[in-house]
Amino acid sequence: LLNVAPDARGRWDDGAYDRLAALGRWLGVCGEAIYGTRATTPHAEGDVFFTRSKDGAVRYAILAPRQGNPPATLEIRAFTPTPGSAVRLLGHGDLSWQPLEGGGFSAVLPEDLPGEHAWAIRIVVS
After folding, report:
1. End-to-end distance of the chain based on CA atoms, in angstroms?
2. Which residues pair with 98 in a beta bridge?
3. Distance CA 92, CA 74 (A)
4. CA–CA separation, 4 vs 15, rounded Å?
5. pLDDT digits (tens, 9 = 90+) for 105-121
6. Nearest of 121, 125, 119 to residue 99 by alpha carbon
7. CA-based diameter of the chain, in Å?
8. Per the CB 3.0–4.6 Å rule, which of 21, 38, 90, 103 could disulfide with 120?
């Protein structure tokens, strides 16, 4: 998935080290959404992929736009945060959010997103 592997002679391309270092930096910020989490249903909604904490009380939404920039407002229909709970962009802080009619919620993303390619949002659901 990362396109990181040695060539036929066992040598590594210099770009491989850059990709691995970038992944390490992302995990330093968003690793909470990966390490110790579990699969959840649904696993995705458009460009957003979901994981959950072991006890199921927290969901993580990992926004990874396939094309272009992330939206200014993110809408998720798969679940709704617990009323009054924080919706937090990892590496940034709390986001302003509101429930959507019919289920789900919308959250306003900051202009200065931390990182380049993907962002993780922590959502308390119970």
Report:
1. 33
2. 106
3. 15
4. 8
5. 999 999 989 888 899 99
6. 125
7. 58
8. 90
- pTM for this predicted structure: 0.89
Q: What is the mean pLDDT of residues 41-70?
A: 94
Per-residue pLDDT reduced to its tens digit, 76-97: 999 999 999 999 999 999 999 9
**Single-letter amino acid code for the residue at 123:** I
- Stated as kind and residue range, the H or E segment containing 30 is helix 14-30
Query: Residue 16 is which amino acid?
Result: A
Measured CA to CA in angstroms, residue 12 lies from 1, 22, 24, 98, 118 at distances of 16, 16, 18, 47, 25
Q: Which two tokens stand for residue 86?
A: 């924080």
Residues pairing with 94 in the sheet: 88
